[in-house]
Amino acid sequence: MLTWEFPPRIVGGIARHCEGLAKALSRQGHEVHVVTLDLPGIPYYEEIDGVKIYRTAAELGHPNFITWTLLFNHFLEKRMADLSKEVEYDVLHVHDWLTAPAGISFKHFLKKPMVLTVHSTEYGRSSLHSPDSYAIDGIEWWSTYEADKIIVTTEFMRREVCDHFRAPWEKVKIIPNGINLKKFPESVDRGAIRRRYGIHDHEKLVLCVGRLVPQKGVEYLIKAVPRVVQRHHEAKFVIVGDGWLKSHLEHVARSSGHERKIAFTGFIPDSELVALLMSADVLVVPSIYEPFGIVALEGMAAKVPVVATQVGGLGEIIEHDKTGILVHSRNHESLAWGVNRVLSDSGHSKWLIENALEKVQKTYSWESIAMKTVKVYKEVVG
Amino acid sequence: MGKAMYAGSSSPEVPEEIRLLCMLHNIGATTPEKSLSLPEIRDWTAQEISTVQPQLQNLMSLGYVESSKTEGVDKYHVTLDGIRKVLSMYS
């Protein structure tokens, strides 16, 4: 498995996806080697739950993003070349374009099939706004062309990959993202956790988790704050995550007139995030582009009602008014309506939570996702 | 990749100091052993020291960059929080 992020190097959802899949494949008796990039202070090799993890340093860098990417791919290739002297691989599984150049080279060198998981596309993320963006789009097309099979996590992404890259429909398989339900304890000390974030017992905790970049739509949530506070004066908003948009969002929060109602936590560790999710009254996912939306699944597993925009995978994960509330994207009024709906009717929220948990348990276990992935591996191995 | 990500939207562009942070990260200045002096950063980024220096100060105040003295020369590298900040743009 080739991925540029693997815990504790966590950028977005890919790291958790690769970890969940790799461990489930290992539990099912498959030998899994993950080749990934290093992170200062973390061992270059370790074995966790049967998964062999090889972390690789890019010994040469360059300020240009694309050049840097090609350079670290070169070092990943070198690492894999060393490994292939000792191990015979059956299939290469590449995650996203960032490690595709190394994967494609290795596919031809080893003469082994390559499976590619497309987690998102540059076209979807940024609408191809710059020369770098076009270059990324080109590498993404190349990787879909070279892949023996392509895995996407939602029907939405299948359409995007087939329409934009002209990939044959039958080459693209849908296997959803998974979630590790075991990381969610039965209960947490809700009061203590909420107090750590300045939330008193009588107050309502509205939580938002995500990278602070435009595609996550956090600005719309901040703009929804006055409408929520108007009906629920006791509401407080906690925004978890980091990103280049943070200072702008802090400015928007200050301008909202409700600065004291909005807290930015920055990055928080996974265990703390689980506890915070389980202590929230509502989780809001205000994205404007979301190929899957794993944070919504985490909310569902944490037994917190989810209000999400009806974009991309979110519209497939959540059934409106049954497993969560779907609202319009880029629309703060709609977001406020969704949050108010949840906060105003605790009986309905409880029902949403029960339905959501049942759906997560049935559909999104890593065991089932690993089995579906192995089926794809078998198709390409022949 | 992050700059003007959403053409037509009112979102601001990536701040200059964050672009510098990305460049330091991509160059590989991510540990004290790989830290870079101001002239080295100037050469890599093709920016004047007078431009880079205040941005580095800002990045240090945010905890994204640390400096250390090697043989009397101030050198700079990206911290773990800084790496996370950069990576948040690349996904």
Question: How does this structure look, described?
Answer:
The complex is a heterodimer of chains A (382) and B (91). Chain A is built from 15 helices and 13 strands. Chain A is an alpha/beta fold and 382 residues long. Chain A has two domains: 183 residues, Rossmann fold; 182 residues, Rossmann fold (3-Layer(aba) Sandwich), CATH 3.40.50. In chain A, the strands form three sheets. A six-stranded parallel β-sheet of chain A has the order 10-9-8-11-12-13, sandwiched between helices. In chain A, strands 4-5-6-7 form a four-stranded parallel β-sheet, with helices on both faces. The longest helix of chain A has 20 residues. Chain A is globular. Chain A starts with 12 loop residues before the first helix and ends with a helix. The model of chain A has no long low-confidence stretch (mean pLDDT 95). With 91 residues, chain B is of the alpha+beta class. Chain B has one domain: Arc Repressor Mutant, subunit A. Helix content of chain B is 45%, strand content 15%. Chain B has a three-stranded antiparallel β-sheet. In chain B, a hairpin with a 2-residue loop joins strand 2 and strand 3. In chain B, helix 1 crosses helix 4. Chain B is globular and about 40 Å long. The termini of chain B are close together. The N terminus of chain B is likely disordered. Classes of the chains: A alpha/beta (382), B alpha+beta (91).
Could you give the topology of this structure?
The complex is a heterodimer of chains A (382) and B (91).
Chain A (H helix, E strand, L loop, with lengths): L12 H15 L5 E5 L7 E4 L2 E6 L8 H20 L7 E4 L4 H11 L3 E4 L4 H5 L4 H16 L2 E4 L2 H11 L6 E3 L15 H7 L7 E6 L8 H14 L3 E6 L5 H10 L6 E5 L3 H10 L2 E4 L8 H8 L4 E4 L4 H4 L7 E3 L4 H13 L1 H18 L2 H16 L1
Chain B lengths: L15 H12 L8 E2 H8 L3 H13 L3 E6 L2 E6 L1 H8 L4
Antiparallel strand pairs in B: 1-3, 2-3
